[in-house]
Amino acid sequence: MTPSSASLPLRERVGQINQRLKGWEAVRWVDGAPRITDVLRREVDRWGGIGALYGVLRADPWSQVRWSNGIPPARSAETYELVQDFVRTRGAGLPTLFVEEVPHGLMALGGTTVPVNLALGAGMDPELTAQLAAHIAAETRARGAHVALVSGLDILRDPRWGRAEECFSEDPALAAALMEATVRGMQGSRSDGRIDGDHIAVVAKHLAAQGAGIGGRNGSGAPIGRRELGEIHLRPAYAAARAGVAGFMAAYNDIDGVACTANRDLLTGTLRDDWNWTGIVMADGTAVDRLRDSTPDPATAAALAIHAGVDLSLWDEAFTHVEEAVQRGILDEADVTRAADRVLALKERVGLLDGSISRDHAAEPDAATTREFIALVSRAAAQACVLVHDDDALPLPASAVVAVIGPNADDLEAQLGDYTPPRPQDDPGVSTVRSALEARHGVGNVRYAQGSGHRTALSDEATAAVDDALAGATAAVVVLGGTSRRSYEDEFADNGAVDGPAPDTTNGEGVDLSRLALPAEQLALLRAARAAVPLVIAVLIDGRPRPLDELIPLCDALIVSPFPGPAGGAAIVDVIAGGRGGGLLPATHPRVDGVLPVAHDERMETARGYVDARIPVGQLFGAGAPAGITVTLRPADPGIATDALNDGDTVTLHADIVNSSDSAVSLAVPLYGRRHERGLRPRRRTLLSVRRVRVEARSGAVLPFVLGADELGSWAAGRPEAAPAEVLAWTASTHDPPADAVTVRITDGKGRTGWES
Amino acid sequence: MTPSSASLPLRERVGQINQRLKGWEAVRWVDGAPRITDVLRREVDRWGGIGALYGVLRADPWSQVRWSNGIPPARSAETYELVQDFVRTRGAGLPTLFVEEVPHGLMALGGTTVPVNLALGAGMDPELTAQLAAHIAAETRARGAHVALVSGLDILRDPRWGRAEECFSEDPALAAALMEATVRGMQGSRSDGRIDGDHIAVVAKHLAAQGAGIGGRNGSGAPIGRRELGEIHLRPAYAAARAGVAGFMAAYNDIDGVACTANRDLLTGTLRDDWNWTGIVMADGTAVDRLRDSTPDPATAAALAIHAGVDLSLWDEAFTHVEEAVQRGILDEADVTRAADRVLALKERVGLLDGSISRDHAAEPDAATTREFIALVSRAAAQACVLVHDDDALPLPASAVVAVIGPNADDLEAQLGDYTPPRPQDDPGVSTVRSALEARHGVGNVRYAQGSGHRTALSDEATAAVDDALAGATAAVVVLGGTSRRSYEDEFADNGAVDGPAPDTTNGEGVDLSRLALPAEQLALLRAARAAVPLVIAVLIDGRPRPLDELIPLCDALIVSPFPGPAGGAAIVDVIAGGRGGGLLPATHPRVDGVLPVAHDERMETARGYVDARIPVGQLFGAGAPAGITVTLRPADPGIATDALNDGDTVTLHADIVNSSDSAVSLAVPLYGRRHERGLRPRRRTLLSVRRVRVEARSGAVLPFVLGADELGSWAAGRPEAAPAEVLAWTASTHDPPADAVTVRITDGKGRTGWES
């Protein structure tokens, strides 16, 4: 039976849908113990309880929480229990939900940081993603939290956007697969829908189309149409909804003029009416207050958001005006009850209302579990490394004397991404490229120089140190790229986005870039290496696709690694040592600045590029396939009918994988497609499906791709629908279907695809 | 009574909706007389007539027609008569429509070229635009043509697009006003809707949203939503429809996945059902054939287009398969009849069916009319010059010794734009900046050097010539920019867009640019002038907004002039001599490359620009207001009700203009607005209205702005609709409303705007 808030006084119902506080201000670590603050006391007194408490454990420059002043990891659960007791006893008795940021690992002191979503996108491995998610969930729940805020819905359509790293991919099918895996891994899959004490409820963010913001500017409008929304931006959300995700966070941006926070078509029409999804919709931080331009006052803003389908606020002042909105008659009290009921339903789902969870269910992971987690983080890092170019330079012999230079050669933080907690002093599992090279080649055979900043030049001494490092080296590893590093000296906006980042910061929320070409200072390092050393290996560690055309002529091999996490250095050196990348590019790299946006799945068109950039695409999504492997797609079964698509029927294509090399390989095998539906301009290429497989040396494998409505149907309405079509399918990396592409026919009741002459 | 094609055999009806030929191949000028070719003979025989004949007079590099081989202007009418007689007598008796390109003047030998649309946008003068249009129409009709293909619907949303020059503006209200003026001027305004012998039928192009193509790439998809389409892209088309425009040309691009050529929602739903418009829809050149990706074969492509609402093809092979489509049952014969009826209706409208027009109605303009036309072209050029920056450098004394350098200093063709016929040998009305300076300062006081190409460097000698020109000069006028010049040696795509332009061409159809910053070669000229001469005046003649931030520190004054036409040189020198520009920027200039798109009417957002380009906007739409003029808006009337908006009621705002200078001034006065409608994210600023006024020296004027549903209503659905709102209005050039902005309240039946607290 669903819990109901109807019997609560309106004030208490309003309290259930407010999530105003910053948790680190509600409870503080003082003299070796957690202390409730007046901030929490006042809030509980005001509402007779609170619906949810955000970020008790959040530790980062915005919160100014660090190892010296934060709650020690081992005392998290105790702290949460203190808060929960306080809320229950001082308020009217309802427990509160504890909500934490978990974008790529728990953003708390001691939280395990995993590679950013874009790195997981390179891996294209839903199972690994689910395993990582399960570990993250267990770790987070063990601390005492119930709800994780998790990025993954955003689609990388413009790499100028600083949050590109939080996207899994530019491709909606890949993002959907990894989002679904994340939800499954984090929430578990109990048949009764409950989220048990080893798992955590997920609020997936952001809904929707934030990646379509004009010019890649954070929070700018997405003036897109219904089909673009459905085909590109809603797919990960649909996958999450189907997996039973507990919540969605409404995005800051508007879609065609209507802010997502006020978008009833989206939050009620699509989510609830179309998808039959049940769960809570949370506003993004201060997003309801940001409706100030769409409404005359805060009460109207709250009414608009709640009526649209927002159930729970985040930091907003506007939601404190809900009683006023009801009294003024601009908001139906039943809408408030409905929202509060949804918050209660989530509390029940995580076991808060019937006492079905307790400290016992959320034990700290044991040592073996922790080791397994760390191993998975390393595996994910390996999969994040894409070998884009290798002019027979790799593998690099272990005997080489190596100069390792560049801003990301020995900068652990630059491997981690935004929304990362401060690292512990003792952090044995980590590696940079420098430390990993030292481990492989010996400290004496590795010469390091930073050489330049990420956006700024360094001193003349630093330049001289580069020359010194290069002198006598037989190979150079030049590690370039960007960083989402945040500093405790940075200034932040009211939602935690950096606002005045350090001049050397290039990535993350609030750090959009107009120029993606690497700055001259970084390219100069590559040129210096090229001039001084016979073998140059370039590495790009970054959270967004950059133009690579200037790099490739300056190096013999190029590895691209979206922020690969704490184990990234070793993973990159493994590629250098082994000569094979672990993943594929999760997004298309533009050839040069000025051609954005580009994506592998833009529609067919008659444009001929720019006269000063004939081919806007540099490297396509999916580039980086390992050498020595051939993939051949077998001809298709006759095809399927549209009603069979609706009934869940499928066709299976089989790919024969042959590994003619002398070593086993783990690789992602993408299946690309072009879907012809009469009257629609087709997308040039989309990802139909992708599977990872391990193939032993001098051996083969057969890989089945099972294709149903998700892969072959229409997504124009934001969910898979049967429609007659012909789909060309292929596995080569080509942007257009090769001559031997396989045709899958989806026919109507009369056996027609709509594509017959 | 509307003519009906129902009695014609299907084949003849199909003939009426085909416009396959390139007219210059249908009739040729041989041995001093026009000759019908086999091309026309075969086509007439095939269909028993033809519906329309495109481009008999077209003269340009694509057609390879020039003064030496084309039909002399004085023999045009005779040529057309020959063709018409042939079609009538050899076919089944129906006359054909003669269709010509008239993008900014008739694109035929001897056609008068007027400034490009973007230049008219700078002028913001609907009356002048209408007068120019009337002259163009008279000239074109005098040649014997019936239908003009006229740009003006496209909205300049991304200046990388080579066709930016064909747009009036980035702003839909300005574009709509000038489009309406163009239709009124060209077609006349007879109460019976007929287009008499002094006027010409307009097919306005392109419908719709071509300016929203991804990345500014010509013909790329526009994945925009309904509100963006209605508010930004459909407004000029609605204005044209309301003015009774004879036709629309469907655009190449898709809107959210559906090619405009196959877009029934647009071509039938919006145009006919919503707008109650009657007229013909013409396909763009080969656009039906380009449905090949959306359909299995040409017959299906034709069926799709006709069913969507295309009535007349252009060059397409697909429309020759219409009978096949009917026979195969994929196209209703009634759809063919309907399309043919619309073609016949246009023939009737221009007087072709009842013999109401004859050679007598289309006399060559007399000398006085021609002089008036030339004077208007000069006035339009003057209005096209925007004084963006003046550090007390202007006026320049006539005694100055002037170095005039740069690729556009003496390049007449670079002033004209794309779709321009070859100039006559004897072309007395023209001027370049060089020639105009020579006229003012004396040939002996003007030193010219080209210095560089538009995209390419010139020889060392050319550089040395710059130094020579600068030596001893007291002022430098450095004329930079781009060019849409086409060469008879260029290669062209099957639709006449240049495909392999000369390396020095930068603008026009098929010439999209990824980098808009002026090339180093051009900036070097400005630097050389800055170093050598005390006073530097920069002039940018270009068809698109370029980043100007690099130019301004290098000059004392900067004049921006969208391709100003044949009289552009004198117009620019008038600004130099007078110290006042004639127009305002018709589009927002980006501050730097990499920030596109930008526009003054993007929605309010929370983005803070890019960390490497905090303010993406360089110069706002509307910049360039003349000094010495103050504009003050009086407080508003109480407001109006939404039903009054529907009933055509208006409010009038009055601006007091004071000219405190010693000379009369003609200026455009824009009225800006921000419209708050509950639940919508407002556009930061839009143009509500603009009026031109002349104010005498030391004098004042009162300017009324009459605001109705067009200005104050919602355009979300593609036509003005009443909706409660509050509209802030102001005349200052600021991007945000100043403190003294005037509020106009549009209330519902209960006196509420939806904006009350």
For the termini of chain A, the CA-CA separation is 56 Å
Shape estimate of chain A: globular
The largest sheet of chain A has its strands arranged as 3-4-5-6-7-10
Largest sheet: number of strands, sense, barrel closure of chain A = 6 strands, parallel
- Strand-residue fraction of chain A? 15-25%
State the helix count of chain A: 20
Assembly level: homodimer
Please tell me the overall pLDDT of chain A.
95
- What structural class do you assign from the helix and strand content of chain A? alpha/beta
Q: Low-confidence parts of chain A, pLDDT < 50 over ≥5 residues?
A: none
Helix content of chain A: 25-40%
| Structural Rg of chain A | 26 Å
Greatest interface = A-B, 80 and 80 residues
Number of strands of chain A: 26
Protein topology:
The structure is a homodimer of 757-residue chains.
Chain A: H1 10-16, H2 23-26, E1 27-30, E2 33-36, H3 38-47, E3 52-54, H4 76-90, E4 97-101, H5 117-123, H6 126-143, E5 147-151, H7 172-187, E6 201-207, H8 226-233, H9 235-242, E7 247-250, E8 254-255, E9 258-259, H10 264-274, E10 280-283, H11 298-308, H12 322-327, H13 333-349, H14 367-383, E11 386-390, E12 402-405, H15 433-441, E13 446-449, H16 460-470, E14 475-481, H17 520-532, E15 535-542, E16 557-562, H18 568-578, E17 589-590, E18 617-619, E19 629-633, E20 640-641, H19 642-646, E21 651-659, E22 665-676, E23 686-695, E24 699-707, H20 709-712, E25 725-730, E26 742-747
Parallel strand pairs in A: 3-4, 4-5, 5-6, 6-7, 7-10, 12-13, 12-14, 14-15, 15-16, 20-26
Antiparallel strand pairs in A: 1-2, 8-9, 11-16, 17-18, 19-21, 21-24, 22-23, 22-25, 25-26
Helix pairs in contact in A: 1-13, 5-14, 6-7, 6-14, 7-9, 14-18, 15-18
